[in-house]
């Protein structure tokens, strides 16, 4: 397996590593910022996957550098430009935004494969650029969210999926559909959250319910 030469963390410091990304988490220059441990684990997994293929290894283009980002500006489908943050120490505290992420899901129905788009609330853990491709690391919810239900109820409850192999993933930033306003469900179980209806939709909600 090839060795990753460096990881360039924007707004942190460029730090050399020799064996794996876990050493970055324990590096004193980085650790004062408290890099998200799950973000590092995702990069470790994806990095190993990229280099474990034995066939035609010489033709593979190695990712000698990962460029990490604490925020990224993304153009949404409706044309709006939105800044998403994934920062361990912004204004003195961790700041990890949430987004609604779209996934193409394949389901079998009577022997036929149906492909549908489902939308999952997801916590953003970090951003990387590899070979010019922008990607985002997220932890997704256990169940998809029905947007119409949110519009009618003003808020919906949910649960983050704690299965690392299934729901901690690295995806293209184009999978992000919308920013979400999410608060922890204080007093609830680990990973429980509440999604609030975006402020731009409040007028329609109150006019329909008054």
Sum this structure up briefly.
The protein is α+β, with helices and mostly antiparallel strands and 210 residues long. The chain has helices at 22-26, 28-31, 37-51, 147-153, 164-167, 202-209, and strands at 6-9, 14-16, 65-69, 71-75, 81-90, 93-96, 98-109, 112-130, 133-140, 155-159, 168-172, 176-184, 192-196.
How does this model look, in words?
Strands 1, 2, 3, 7, 8, 9, 10, 11, 12 and 13 form a ten-stranded mixed sheet that branches. Strands 4-5-6 form a three-stranded antiparallel sheet, with no helix packed on it. The radius of gyration is 19 Å and the shape is globular. The protein contains six helices and 13 strands. The protein has one domain. Helices cover 20% and strands 45% of the residues. Strand 8 and strand 9 form a beta hairpin. The chain has 210 residues and is α+β, with helices and mostly antiparallel strands.
Distance between the termini: 63 Å
Please state the oligomeric state of the protein chains shown: single chain
Tally of individual helices: 6
What is the count of β-strands? Answer: 13
Average of the residue pLDDT scores:
78
Domain unit count:
1
Low-confidence residue ranges: 1-24, 27-31, 51-56
Structural class based on helices, strands and sheet pairing: alpha+beta
